[in-house]
Amino acid sequence: MMRVLFITAYYPPCDYGWGYMRICEQVADGLQARGHAVAVLTSHYRHGAEFKPYPVSRTLPVDPDWHKRTPAAWQFFVGRRRREQQAVAALQEMVETFQPDVLFVWHAHGLPRVLLQAAENMSLPTAYYFANYLPEMPDEYVPYWQSLPANPLFRVLKGALARVALWQLAREGKPIRLQYAHTISVSTYVRDRLRRQGLIGADAVVIPNGVDRAVFHSNGRSSHSAPNQTIRAVIAGRVAPEKGIHTVLHALGKLRQQNRLDRLHLTIIGDGPADYRAMLDELLQQYRLGEFVTFAPPVNVTEMPSVYANHDVLLLPSEWDEPLSCTMLEAMACGLLVIGTTTGGSGEALFHERTGLVFPPGDAEALAELLDRIQKEPTLVARLAMAGEQEVITRFDMTHSVARIEAYLAGLLGLPEVEAHVTAES
Q1: Interior CA angle at 100 toward 126 and 37, to 5°?
Q2: Edge to edge, what strands does the sheet with 313-316 contain?
Q3: Do 405 and 379 fall within a single domain?
Q4: Which tens digit of pLDDT belongs to each residue from 100-128?
Q5: Residues 6 or more apart from 97 whose CB is under 8 A from it?
Q6: Nearest Cα to 374, choosing from 256, 259, 229, 247?
Q7: The CATH number of the domain where 420 resides is what?
Q8: Closest CA to 207 of 398, 342, 367, 383
Q9: Which of 29, 166, 257, 335 has the fewest CB atoms nearer than 10 Å to its CB?
Q10: Structural domain of residue 82, as residue ranges?
């Protein structure tokens, strides 16, 4: 039995952390179910009652904390060093009380890097799971102070503070260069991108996030929308520019202008920056898409299986390098056709004409043609959806992912036969 201490910025029940948090929770639950002792050290954020059978300590700061109304500049100059010391003390206390065999770092954006440095300096192996590009940002405050506002007055004021802040960070020995000696990446894209820059260790492996097939499945779905029925498409997640939702509305607008939009309805589930939502509303009016597009508030992950069951197609128009989309894999597992971009790691599961349909990021014309095509070829939706579901069953099952992570961690603790098994699969 291993004793594994998870370190992560957000942990359920929590409204933040999104897909990364979901993967972390599933792995922690999976390791605990396999007989290992699990504990979690996370931030103070909690939205609901604790419900895990293992210890969850909510004592870490998030710094800078963008969920607070307090300006980041104030957070930097007031109490930051004290919060760093408190974070290190919280780790030391958790290690003393839980006595872990291995430290397992997950979503660490916002966690003080001195905390991670303290973890690496302990006489315990420290492993990281990257479903992001954490090593590329060694300190959140550095880019904050390096970016100056457009307003001339604010630019002068922040510029003066930035010179002091950057001098202070340098005096503190920051940004801290972490070793990242033992890492798991969610996709080959993430691992190779970080390894090319020399940011992670030589033993870096790839273990993709999996889908809990007991929760996300097609439930024997035998068909999608009938030939003359409306095709139900959905976008679920953060409503932000990098997610490319504007490209979808431009594509629908083109079809509307050409009288080719007649049996497709899109539901957009999620929230994000108010200015971006306002821009999307303007596109709805510009293209007269009110009857074809519905906005809905975010839903809890427990409601997502019902969301997928009530839709035929998931749109994934991301314009940033997705490490590996949880939503994409869940939708495929539930028997939806995925139409999306293959930025980042998405192309490791989404293959054009094989497991879904693909268009270039930001290319509204190409997406419009694909949407027109599924309106005309309803059997294509069902055929590719079935292929996508099989892809998840074969390569992205959470049970397999947890087993491989278990083997990797065991290998760090000196079980060479298990370590060889993981290396062979990576």
Answers
A1: 115
A2: 293-296, 264-269, 231-236, 313-316, 337-340, 357-358
A3: no
A4: 999 999 999 999 999 999 999 999 999 99
A5: none
A6: 229
A7: 3.40.50.2000
A8: 398
A9: 257
A10: 3-138+176-210+398-425
